[in-house]
Amino acid sequence: MKIYTRKGDKGMTGVFGGKREPKNGPRIECLGTLDEVNSTIGLLRAKLGSDHDWQGNLHRIQKDLMDMMSHLARPSVSNKENQNPKPVDGADFCEQWIDEVEHTLSSPSDYFLLPGGNEISALCHVCRTQIRRGERALVSLADEDPACVEEYVSAYINRLSDLFFTLARAEMDQHGVAEEKWNLFLYKRKKKP
């Protein structure tokens, strides 16, 4: 079987159930952004090396993203049986990892930070911002096809951006790279006397 089909040459692509949708439509935009996130996580994993502590969890996230994309690629009117597993515990998984990592940090997270620090931290921030774009695309897809976007997907994607912010901080902390602070988080500013 050839990799090319020529069916998408006019700006339309097929989704599960045989329906064709525009390549710039909400579903395809969402899928494309999550695919981009997955690829960037793959680059991050390659930069980390195979023996890094994060490898197992990042691998799980990549597989979960593929499963979620499989679900999102099916319009709510299509048959959703015999699909890949649903990573319904994704938000909890992220929260647990965030909590574990935060316990190792030398200071709490009180500030917005300028992305960067070192290559791994910067890649974590790229993942974080791509995830945020994916989240916005997910909202657009939910507006068009509300039944397609299940609550566990929205929660997982939202938590992933928090996770990658935390991983960026952990990388810098572990290597003694100073954070470039911008402003206190708004809720922290309100608590100041």
Kindly state the mean pLDDT as a whole number? 87
**What is the count of DSSP helices, taking H or I runs of 4+ residues?**
6
**pLDDT under 50 segments (min length 5)?**
none
Q: Write down the overall geometry.
A: elongated
Order of helices and strands: EEHHHEHHEH
CATH architect. name: Up-down Bundle
As a percent range, the share of helical residues equals: 55-70%
Can you describe this structure?
The chain has helices spanning 26-48, 55-72, 90-102, 119-144, 151-174, 186-191, and strands at residues 12-14, 20-22, 111-113, 181-184. It is mostly helical and 193 residues long. A two-stranded antiparallel sheet has the order 1-2. It has a two-stranded antiparallel sheet with strand order 3-4. Strand 1 (12-14) and strand 2 form a beta hairpin. The longest helix has 26 residues, at 119-144. It is elongated, with a radius of gyration of 19 Å.
